[in-house]
Specification:
- This protein is of the alpha/beta class.
- The protein has two domains: 228 residues, Spore Coat Polysaccharide Biosynthesis Protein SpsA, Chain A (Alpha-Beta Complex); 80 residues.
- It has ten helices and seven strands.
- The protein has a seven-stranded mixed sheet with strand order 3-2-1-4-6-5-7, with helices on both faces.
- β2, α2 and β3 form a beta-alpha-beta unit.
- The longest helix is centred in the C-terminal third of the chain and has 44 residues.
- The protein is elongated and about 90 Å long.
- The structure holds guanosine-5'-diphosphate and magnesium ion.
- Guanosine-5'-diphosphate binds next to β1, β2 and α3.
């Protein structure tokens, strides 16, 4: 069994070395532990510090491409190097790498495809209340959309099997954490959750400079992921709702027309009815088109999976 630890890092010279040194290199039943650092256009000494601490492999971006792109590239590098299990951790020393053996256990035991961690954000003394609330809201949205009782959708400390890594296709360029959960649930993967430590960050967050901009971008990713996977459900409900509303309004006009032979004084209602019925029908049709696109996507994902697996 080969384990790959993937660390996306953007200007983490102060902590990357500590993170790498904390990674246990000897784990029962694991033959090899490989540390892969994805340097996302760092302008400080992140790479040399990582090298000094014993990083085995680097993926380097000349310019900053964002966390989600780095995640994808790290994943590809891990697959390429033949990893059976992949762990994602952060380069900022907030996670405790000593927990890696516990994290991968459900996968080694064949009990899970994906292991998420729960930072238990409410009880973190160092996290500001606004961030706690934001975390909770995002977790609940993911929980609601995915229909899975996720405890902490934002934790980046995760483990997955090679098979899972081959099947995940992250589309976002910014953050991947929520998208991965929604996809994993819709792809019927087995998900386990374990509690984890979460230390205070030394220095500023690289990812979240502004909580509102994060909420906007993460929110859009969450909604888009859902729409990509369940377009029929969404468009069908919106379309049917509009058509139902139109029908109810139209009924009043129709009854009046049948008893008097006149549309007036209900002409505005009649117009609204027509608009609602037409728009509703179009939304319904959009759902059918989106569903066909989704069917295509599934076929392409299958091809991609087979290609990556046989490479
Ligand atoms: N590759 C890459 N990594 C990033 C970027 N932004 C943040 N990270 C890394 O992602 C991890 C989590 O980011 P962090 O700033 O700690 O986010 P927070 O803990 O959610 O506030 C850290 O290892 C960062 O170095 C980025 O633009 N590119
Ligand atoms: Mg962090």
């Amino acid at each position: 069994m080969k384990l790959a630890i993937v660390i996306p890092a953007h200007n983490e010279e102060k902590t990357i070395g500590k993170v790498i040194r904390e990674i246990p290199r000897r784990i029962p039943e694991i033959k090899e532990v490989e540390v892969i650092v994805v340097d996302d256009g760092s302008t400080d000494r992140t790479v040399s510090e990582a090298l000094k601490a014993g990083a085995d492999r680097f993926v380097q971006h000349k310019v900053n491409k964002g966390l989600a792109v780095s995640f994808r590239d790290g994943l590809d590098a891990a697959l390429e190097s033949g990893a059976d299990i992949i762990v994602n951790t952060d380069g900022d020393f907030q996670y405790n790498q000593g927990e890696i053996p516990t994290l991968i256990k459900p996968i080694m035991d064949g009990k899970a495809d994906l292991v998420l961690t729960d930072r238990n954000v409410w009880n973190l003394r160092h996290m500001p209340v606004s961030k706690k609330i934001g975390n909770k809201i995002a977790t609940y949205i993911v929980r609601f959309l995915a229909g899975f009782p996720v405890k902490d959708a934002q934790s980046g400390f995760r483990a997955y099997s090679r098979e899972t890594a081959l099947q995940l296709n992250i589309l976002s360029d910014y953050t991947y954490v929520q998208e991965m959960i929604i996809q994993a649930v819709f792809k019927k993967m087995k998900i386990a959750q374990v509690p984890c430590d979460f230390r205070a960050r030394e220095g500023e967050s690289r990812l979240i400079s502004n909580i509102w901009s994060y909420a906007k971008r993460a929110g859009l990713t969450i909604v888009l992921t859902y729409v990509h996977y369940k377009p029929l459900k969404i468009f069908l409900s919106i379309g049917l709702f509009l058509m139902l509303l139109g029908s109810v309004l139209g009924l009043r006009v129709l009854i009046h027309y049948l008893s008097t032979g006149l549309v007036s004084p209900y002409i505005p209602t009649a117009i609204l009815t027509a608009i609602l019925l037409i728009v509703g029908f179009q939304v319904l049709m959009m759902g059918l088109v989106a569903d066909s696109i989704n069917a295509n996507r599934r076929i392409m994902e299958k091809i991609l999976y087979l290609m990556k697996r046989n490479k």
